[in-house]
Each structure stands twice: as C-alpha cells, then as structure tokens.
Description:
This protein is of the alpha+beta class. About 25% of the residues lie in helices and about 25% in strands. The protein contains eight helices and 19 strands. The strands form five sheets. A seven-stranded mixed sheet has the order 1-16-18-19-14-13-17, with no helix packed on it. Strands 4-3-11-10-9 form a five-stranded antiparallel sheet, sandwiched between helices. The chain has a three-stranded mixed sheet with strand order 2-15-12. The radius of gyration is 28 Å and the shape is elongated. Residues about 5-35 have low confidence and may be disordered.
Amino acid sequence: MSFAPETSPARRRSLFPSLALLVGVLASAVAVAPPARAQTFETKAPFAILLDAQTGSVMFEKNADEQMAPSSMSKLMTAYMVFERLKDGSLSLTDQLPVSENAWRTGGSASGGSTMFLPLNSTASVEDLLRGIIIQSGNDACIVIAEGLAGDEDAFSRAMTRKSREIGLTASNFVNSTGLPNPEHYTTARDLATLARAIINNFPEYYHYYSETEFTHNGITQHNRNPLLYRNIGADGLKTGHTAAAGYGLTASAKQGNRRVIMVVNGLASIKERSEEAERLMSWAFRNFENVELFDAGVPLSQAEVWMGDRKTVPLVLNQRLQITLPRNATREMTMKVVYDGPLSAPVEKGTPVATLYLESPEMVTMSFPLLAGESVDKLGWAGRFGRTLTMMFDRMIGKVFSEPAPEAS
C-alpha cells in the first residue's frame, strides 16, 4: 500500500503518516464505505446483490435497482413492523390476535397458498404469528397481524411503505402484508438488502426466529424454506419468496467469524436453482473479500496549509473509523491520497470538510471520503497579517538572490 499527494493548478499538499502507525488503534464507530467490488462474477439470478453487513460495501450487484416483485420476501417488512412494536412496548409476544374470515379465506387453508393453517375465529399469540410468518411463510398470519395492528390490511400496508422510507428503502411500495401478486407491490434487491440489514442491526433480540428450521402449530409441522440454513456456511436468516410471476427469490444472511454477509437473489427458475445460486454467491463473497480496518476517527492523516491563520497548518481527520470491504490482497496495490484546494483561508472551524481522501486499487472502484479540519484555526489580527506578509516578502527576496546565478568573471 502506498500514499501519494495529488497535484493540481491549485496548491495541494499531502504528508501521510505510515499506515503501520494507524492500524490497530480503531474505535467503535465505522464509516460506511461505498461499493468496492471486483465484478468478475456472474449469476443466473436476474436480480442480485451481495452486501457486507458491517461496512455496507457492495461486493456484487446485478440489476439491484430495478423494480421487481418481492413475493414473500416482503414479509420481512411485515415482521419489521411487529419487531418495532415489540421493542417500544406497545405489543407483547403473548398478546392474542383474532383470526378473521378475511384472514382465513385470503391467506388460510382455503386460499391454497402458503399458510399457517390458522382456524377460523380462533386466536393466536404474536409470537406464534411471527413464527408462522418467518418459518412457515403464512399469508394468514400476515393478515392477522395487519388487522390486529392497523385495523385492516390497507392501512397496515400504507404504514409499511412509510416506515420503509424512514429506514432507507427508496424504491419500494407495499399494498399488502403478504407479498401476493399486485402490480403496485414492488421493491428492489438493494432495498431488500437494506431491510435485512436494518432487521439484523435494530432487532438482535428477535433475529433468532429466522434461524429456526421448523415450527409446529395446530398440530401441523412445517419447515423453513431457506435452503442456506441446511448448509454449513453460517447462514441464520432470512426469507424466501416465490410466485409464478416473480420466480424464486431469497434474502439471506450468513456469518463466518467476525464477518456477516447479506445476499438477495430473485427471479430464479426453480427451487434447485435458487439453492445452488444462493450458496455459490454467499460462498464466493466470504472466499474472495475481507474487511480491512484502515484509520481511526480523529487520527491526523495529513496537514493542510492555512493562509493567514494563527497556525500555518491544520490536521486533516476522518469523523468516523474507516473500515472497508475489499477483494483479498487488494491492499497490496492500494494507493491513498489526500486532495484539497489550498492553502485554506483562515478562519477554519474544527469539523469543517476541507479535503478528500481517495483510495484506489486495480481490484476496486475508487473510493472517496471527506476529511475534516481536526482543529480550529483563527485568522491573524492586523499586526499578525502585516508581519506574516513582510516575512513572506523577505523570504522571497532571499530566495531570489540565492537562486540567481553568480556573475561571470571578466
């Protein structure tokens, strides 16, 4: 790994310290890295994304921002709504919710779709309904939750869409709680990955439901359809999906050591193809990428010159720890440089973005991160500015004298 300053018509400086002095002094906050990927991979899935859960870096994507039908993967949003109510105390796992005729007819045994087999006019606990949604993919359980929490499914679906915007889903719209086909019910692979990450980070106390491989209710045992749970790759969630129009999909997560990967695939042709592609993608992500910790928050990475300040330079720092996901061994050819338009004009306020850190390697797209002024620099007073100007003029004169060639002897 090497460091280099950037030059431009404006004066730009960079004096990097050694990386060895910075690695190993990392704090808890992590700066989220932009996509860093080696796109030398292909998948049969029409829609796909691989995301590192800790850094947010994208390792692979294919049509990740194209609109698609999520089918039962949209039940991740339904469960998110329940988790949030459980966390704020307005709902408990032991609360009982009634099974309406609508829930039974639209999503129950009478519907012919994925169901928890809830009896008509019965009640079920919130915890059982969660397991019915997550493990059995029960459409009836989703509708019972929607009616119990919002009065009807339309109101609940609108709340799902509003909440999705709050947590960073930018291209999703929900018109039901189940994922049953509707042209106005859609999402993207990137949004599903964002949703999975939010569930993992925001509700660790409830995430364990996604790793359960079977659930028995009303005397009927059903098994979790997530194929990765039955592979030895560290998978512990999240949700499958399938309709004739959408094909076979899976939003999944797996953890190996300290790394967690989130994967979304959709539009595959069969259960077998979904299983094979999902395992292949997840294994590829763990095998070919690693998380690299680079710099701590507040550690000076360089100095920027300051014009007419009470200090001649100001340290340049990151506001958060920088950890990124890279192709393995990419750091061997990585170059880092600081770029700023300088000298900076005093005053400079601490925390102001004044420069940019660039990371480059043949194995990844260029990454950039803002650098902040690590300290405040006040503007010199009149006398100080006058003295500084005289000093500069004197230095230039002396420099000119010593740079001129000596006269030739006659």
